[in-house]
Amino acid sequence: MNDRLIDGWPLPEARQILEDAGFNTQVYNAKEDLLRDIRPSLLMLWGGVAFVLLIGCVNIANLMLARSQVRRTELAMRLALGAQRGRVARQVLTENVLIGVLGGVLGAGVGVLGLALLNALGLSDLPRGSQVGLDAGVLLFTLGVALGAGVLFGLIPVVHLVRNDLSSVFRTEGRTGTASRRAVTLRSGLVTAQVALAFVMLIGAGLMFVSFRSAVAVDPGFRPEGVFTAMVSLPESRYADAESRRQFTDELLSQLRVIPGVEAASMTSQLPFSGNNSSSVILPEGYVTQPGESLLSPFQTWVGDEYFETLGIELVEGRTFHLSDGPDAANAIVIDEWLARRYWPDTSPVGKRMVWGAVPGSDDVDEEDLFTVVGVVETVKQNDLTAPDEEHVGAYYFTYRQRPVGFMTVVARTGVEAASVTPRVRQVLAGIDPELPLFGTRTMEERIDESLASLRVPLILLSVFAGIALFLAMVGIYGALAYTITQRTREFGIRLAMGSGPGSIFAMVLRQGARVIGVGLLVGGTGAYASVRLMQSLLFGVESTDPAVMGGVAVLLAAVGMLAAVIPARRATRVDPIRALAG
């Protein structure tokens, strides 16, 4: 098919030009094409869900392990009195499955609220985001995970119940009242794993936050504050010729400019961050492409007079369009800095002519295809604040008065709340043509904000996951140390009775917590260095191994972990030696 199209192009060098331009046809699976841009974000969020689930499971495992240690005497006593192991095991499993199901139901309720919040924050701006919801499949998956977790972690006390020798349980309890060294080591290892996983999650959230902040700080090339935008489409049945479209636009702009609060108004065929893009090849007059050089296809836009002033696009050289640039005047064009540097790196482009509308490489160029460059303006970000500068291919602007268009976006800079002028703009439009609707009303800031949805939604979700991970890590550290203190009450009583001060006990417990946190940070740092490198394609303005982010997250997690350790450490200092020794 491509060969037939190329052979039908009225230019002898057509094949060479297209080959130099890298022309080719790529075929994609529809599903792959839909997910291609958001696949990294989805994988990252899946990873976040998996990490939170894993941290929660580790926390439950630790709690179940502690619970099995607390209940081991009770269970051993029941077995010694004749209870069957299978019946006791079923009871323990039933209790844990019930807890798991209740947790799943509660999680589904939280999911409903969370989905409503995400919709309010721009989930629908993502591909097929409006179709995301809680259906039967999601609820069944949630129930399955809850049941699986209940059964899995209910097996922990069951295993202890089956494997333990009853006489050893009574001897250990009677002699020391403390858990075995193996159990203590296992619980410390689980808490260390929680800290490590939370560290990875927090680093991911920190990197996304810095990336989002860097994107927001990018200069779009214009001033979006206080700019109102709305779209108007002229039907060909009533605006069939250029003069009728020109008269309509002239009248619309003249009336918009007298609305109270409007400082400047204009129109454009292609507004930045609107998703409405148009591009076409344009070349300087007499330009000869070099072998292997690709033809550029910059963004092309039709604008009204005062457009650059209204949007706040800086004039670099020459002038912008005037009302005198009408149908009887010489064809005028304004180009951006990028295009000026591309074709005139060492000289001014003002006054030079460009060829547009003719077949590239053709020697037969009509006068109507030649446009004189009257000005150069600042380069503008068209759709994505995070797009690399090297991906920009230039932009050029025509005046609507020479080539009127039927579809336009009205732009107005206001000294009041931009959205508040919408009713007055509708009145003006209705006064000119009552049958024309005004649609797509947005402020320019809203349009830019919508373009950041692909960064903002993952950031919010990852931050929520990281917050949950941090909370679970705190709970894990607190629970492990609190249980340790319960088990070591007699030891602390003896130490206090032998002359140790509360300060030394406090420091001892804190050191235990610090060891767990330190090892967790070390393991988590190693894991984070390997895993967050996969996020690089999602980041902007920050490296995946940014030392400031890693250091800040480490300090935060260490501070929060030590805060969780302070409470049980203070409790350890209040142990009554007499009661501890008597018990």
Q: What percentage of the residues does DSSP assign to strands (E)?
A: 5-15%
Please tell me what the overall shape is: elongated
Distance between the termini: 90 Å
Helix content: 55-70%
- Low-pLDDT stretches: 174-178
**What is the averaged pLDDT score?**
81
The assigned structural class equals alpha+beta
Number of helices in the DSSP assignment = 18
Order of helices and strands: HHHHHHHHEHEEEHEEHEEEEHEHHHHHH
Beta strands, count: 11
Radius of gyration: 35 Å
Largest sheet entry: 7 strands, mixed
Topology:
Layout: H1 2-7, H2 14-20, H3 30-35, H4 39-80, H5 85-120, H6 136-163, H7 166-175, H8 181-216, E1 227-233, H9 242-256, E2 262-268, E3 283-284, E4 299-303, H10 307-311, E5 315-318, E6 332-336, H11 337-343, E7 353-355, E8 370-377, E9 395-399, E10 407-414, H12 422-432, E11 439-443, H13 444-451, H14 453-487, H15 489-497, H16 502-531, H17 547-572, H18 577-582
Parallel strand pairs: 4-9, 6-8
Antiparallel strand pairs: 1-10, 1-11, 2-10, 3-7, 5-8, 6-9, 7-8
List keywords for this structure.
single chain; 583 residues; alpha+beta; seven-stranded mixed β-sheet; four-stranded antiparallel β-sheet; 11 strands
Structure description:
- By secondary structure, the chain is an alpha+beta fold.
- The chain has helices at residues 2-7, 14-20, 30-35, 39-80, 85-120, 136-163, 166-175, 181-216, 242-256, 307-311, 337-343, 422-432, 444-451, 453-487, 489-497, 502-531, 547-572, 577-582, and strands at 227-233, 262-268, 283-284, 299-303, 315-318, 332-336, 353-355, 370-377, 395-399, 407-414, 439-443.
- Strands 3, 4, 5, 6, 7, 8 and 9 form a 7-stranded mixed β-sheet that branches.
- The longest helix has 42 residues, at 39-80.
- The radius of gyration is 35 Å and the shape is elongated.
